[in-house]
Amino acid sequence: MDLSNSYLNKPNLKTLSLDTENQETPIHFITDGITPTKYFYRRNHFSYPNLNQQSLLLPVYGEVNTPLTFPYCYLRSMPGRSIVSVLECSGNKRAYFNPKTYGDQWQDGAISQGIWKGVSLSNLLNLTGIKNTAKEVLFIGQDQGTRTDLDGIFNYAKSLPIEKALHEDTIIAYELNKSIIPYEHGFPLRLVVPEWYGMASVKWLKEIQVIDYKFEGPFQTIDYVYYPNKYNDKGAVPVTTIKINSIIKQPLNYSLLDTKTHEIFGIAWTGSGTITDVELSFDNGSTWKKTNLYGKSSQSYGWSNWRYLWEVKDKGEYTIMCRAKGSAGNIQSLEAIWNRKGYGYNAVYTIHVKVE
Predict the structure, then answer these.
(1) CATH number of the domain that residue 303 is part of
(2) Which superkingdom heads the taxonomic lineage of this protein's source (predicted)?
(3) Three-class SS of residue 120?
(4) What is the mean pLDDT of residues 44-73?
């Protein structure tokens, strides 16, 4: 039996939960710069929503001069904007926190990179005209359900400060990887907010409201907040910009290798500036060796690929550490900042291999 083209030789999404559906990208086996849509990670807070004809209309109202409702077909007829951007769940790598934190135990695959096309949100807001009283822009999704900590039914909803909402690359997307956004990823319309963790990129957009107050919905002020203390909320700050991070794609952790030259490769990314260097250490961080960056996205929102040729002559066990540096002066540290909900893990990436 020829298995060369069978599903047995292809990666699959890694399922963390089915209700709601949360699945990881097989990131260690994706060599394309753009993540194929079928391998995009899935992060849901509720069951998938039921859509109807009303879902093809996007109302924009609130602190605006002219409230408008934009039909899906009209949005697609407007001047489009395409961006290449990382989408990363803020809980990516949660499984590595010590002590452990509660929630889906994401490892490395709550991250993907796509070509997003849509219309700049600023174009819509300019058409409606923002009042001087506006403070935030609120995005409400079609998806809804109950929570374990509060009574009632909630729609997934998040807000952005006016400045971030007006950035030209904050878009209302209708395409992913040059095709209509799949239902699982937010069809017909989803917000895409480059540089910020994926919780800001609201799927299945139902409506946009310009508000004159600070939004305090549960996904804004309870979830997606860094709580540095286990038993109280002192020092809590919102989760926003993606932290500098990296992974070693290959070799895999606890691989068996032989004595020859091996290619070590992976990706690095950041929400602040761009990646300038990725370094490896083979002596527990005493010295660091630069890798070769390549295949960098033409836009600052994409990850950087890197590779390193490692010539190993001696048998034994090795620890390989990886860290990224950025143009904003940011660098991965040896330890991530622990927080109660397990967001933003970005410690130096470490694998162990044995050479036989």
Answers:
(1) 2.60.40.650
(2) Bacteria
(3) strand
(4) 97
